Amino acid sequence: MLGERVLTILNIDLDDLTWSSEARADLSEYLGGIGLAGKLFAERWRPGSSPGDPGQPVVLAIGPLSTVFPLATKTAAVFHSPLTGEWGESYAGMRLAMALRFAGYDALVVSGRAPHPVYLVITADGVAFRDARALWGLSTEESGRILREWETGRGHRSIVRIGPAGERGVAFAGVNVDTFRHFGRLGLGAVFGAKNLKALVVHGNRCFPIPDRKAYREVYDEVYARAVDTDLMEKYHGLGTAGNVLVLNGLGALPTRNLRQNRFEHAVDISGEAFAEKTLLRKLACPGCPVGCIHIGLYRRQFDAGYEFESSTLAYDHELIYALGSLLGISDTGGIYALIEKTELLGLDAITSGALLAWATEAREKGLIVGEQLGTRLTFGEPEGYLEVLDRIVTQPNDFYRTLAQGLEAAAEAFGGREFALTLGGHEMAGYHTGYGFLLGQAVGARHSHLCNAGYALDQKMGPDFDPDALVDELIAEEKWRQVLNSLCICLFGRGVWTGDLVRRALLCLGIDAEGEFLSELGKRIFKLKNEVKRQMGFDYRWLRFPRRCLETPSFQGQLDEEVLRDLLNRYIARLGV
Predict the structure, then answer these.
(1) Could you tell me if 108 and 9 are in contact, meaning their C-beta atoms sit under 8 angstroms apart?
(2) SS3 category, 161
């Protein structure tokens, strides 16, 4: 039963470089993942303190299905976001969930600030604190390569690290996980940097017993078959999400040149098809996943005259192609790869970076910022200036770049151009200009991400003649169900595979009874918890604004009306009763 399940929490205090573990049966009702991480964060965060306060906790958590079933591959992170000033939430795949599982931890909580840069080695025996001063200042790739050489556990470990952006407090710095995945959004890398925490190396060798092996085998086989033998996951294995580029372009929903346009005339040249045909090397899967959705391409560039070339392997997907491609008018795979590589090495979130660069290009055109501040020239379609600006956002040579390092909301507030600053709830918009559902969905989402709900899909499903109450109800219902999936740490690409019945049966064969209304009540409880903490942090739905540019440029649903958006927001607020 739920009440008999004991969760193991690893507590790490960087102030005095100590650790302890505790057994918490009272947290079993939150299952794991975002439920567990959210509850631990709510217990331990410091109201009134800034996101950079070393006392603010970072919580990482896995779910009961992690590594045990197909597609249960994610680790949830909760923190105080330096980008928005409120709830921060992110997810990463690759080996981290597996490493935490076999080290024996359901969650780890990191607080405090180390006296000097450190990295942590986390095993079943506890935590070792290692000096990271030699790694400070190195890129995510360099630090990852060195840690692979220094530490044991090859094949079973996960190496989580930040780049120079996190060290310098860039508010949209991410955390690299095993090279090809990230805690990308909302600035977890800056929180690591404020704690003098360069990296985590996690590995373990424990086993995970299955109480009912026969039932487990039956559920496992059914989930596996749905993932592999149906077309539910074919999109993700085939072209990956990069297949969205031509689809959205055809719908008039691909943001281009800072959303001045809803279609890109060079979409074919930067499509998922183009990346696959010209550059695709291999496809990777997270441990415990049979799909292989991570598309790795070869980027070959000349760095000097005389046939001096070097090659790197980079992951690409729709959001990167949108943010560092169409949004900036970049019309070739090489230019996009150059920007992907730069954000990777520095440890920056790609979506925020792209939206910020697009705003800066237009702000320069309109005279809101001047060349002396930039120190370079920005032109849509030309990556060279963008590469220089990304470096300067990290090095921060002047007040202008120190402001840019705090994100697009801060930049537009300081220099103007809010009407074409593509932010929703303080967070830079994702790559879907589909209509009302997307704009409302990202703005109100509990973590301000397009993955809070599928508003963009509802726009396509409902079309322009939608029922406003039905749209609002579906957004809320889906977000509550996603709290359940994220508590299980199921990859949301597999949300069509994992039905409610399969979830209950999978939990039952692990000795967890989730029958009746437990799952629906769990979704409501977590959603309520998030909104309560956000309220305490100062968030208010009534303050949300929608950029004028999103209304000026037609979407898939046509020209959008701000009064309709405000009406939808008011209906949403009324449903929540806040």
Answers:
(1) yes
(2) strand
Evaluate whether 385 touches 149 at the Cβ level (below 8 Å): no
Give the residue from 443, 469, 451, 454 showing the smallest Cα distance to 534.
Answer: 443
Report the distance separating Cα 362 and Cα 69, nearest Å.
47
Q: What are phi and psi of 479, to 5 degrees?
A: -65, -40
**326-354 pLDDT, tens per residue?**
999 999 999 999 999 999 999 999 999 99
For residue range 394-414, list pLDDT tens digits in order.
999 999 999 999 999 999 999
Mean pLDDT (whole number) for 421-431: 94
For residue 186, is it left (φ>0), alpha (ψ between -120 and 50) or beta? Answer: left
Instruction: Check: CB of residue 194 under 8 Å from CB of residue 81.
Output: no
For 226-240, the three-class secondary structure string (H helix, E strand, C coil) is HHHCCCCCHHHHCCH
33 and 486 Cβ atoms separated by less than 8 Å: yes
CA 396/CA 254 separation, integer angstroms:
31
The Cα-based distances of 485 to 75, 296, 525, 526 in angstroms read: 12, 27, 14, 11
Instruction: Show contacts of 496-504: CB within 8 Å, 24+ apart.
Output: 496/232, 497/70, 497/71, 497/223, 497/226, 497/227, 497/232, 497/233, 498/71, 498/223, 502/219, 502/222, 502/223
Say how many Å lie between the first and final Cα of the chain, rounded. Answer: 34
The closest of 522, 440, 523 to 479, measured between CA atoms, is 523
CA distances from 81 to 50, 61, 181, 394 (A): 9, 17, 19, 18
- Domains of the chain: residue spans and CATH: 2-202 (3.60.9.10), 233-424 (1.10.569.10), 436-576 (1.10.599.10)
Q: Name the DSSP letter for residue 370.
A: -
What secondary structure does DSSP assign to 60-77, as a single string? Answer: EE--TTTTTSTT---EEE
Q: What is the pLDDT of residues 237-284, one digit of tens each?
A: 999 999 999 999 999 999 999 999 999 999 999 999 999 999 999 999
> What residues pair up with 161 in beta bridges, in sequence order?
176, 199
Q: SS3 for 81?
A: coil
Mean local confidence (pLDDT), 94-99: 95
Distance of CA 548 to the CA centre of its chain: 26
Element (H, E) at 42: helix 33-44
Closest to 538 measured CA to CA, from 92, 48, 51: 48
CA–CA distances in Å: residue 518 to residues 43, 62, 178, 475: 22, 19, 34, 20
Positive/negative CA dihedral, 270, 272, 273, 277: positive
DSSP sequence for 198-255: EEEEE--------S-HHHHHHHHHHHHHHHHSSSTTHHHHTTGGGGHHHHHHHHT---
Pairing of strands 118-123, 197-202: parallel
Give me the torsion for CA of 350, 355, 360, 365, rounded to 10°: 130
Rg over CA atoms, the chain: 22
Beta bridge partners of 111: 13
Give me 222's structure tokens. 């059914």
**Does the structure show a pLDDT above 60 at 66?**
yes
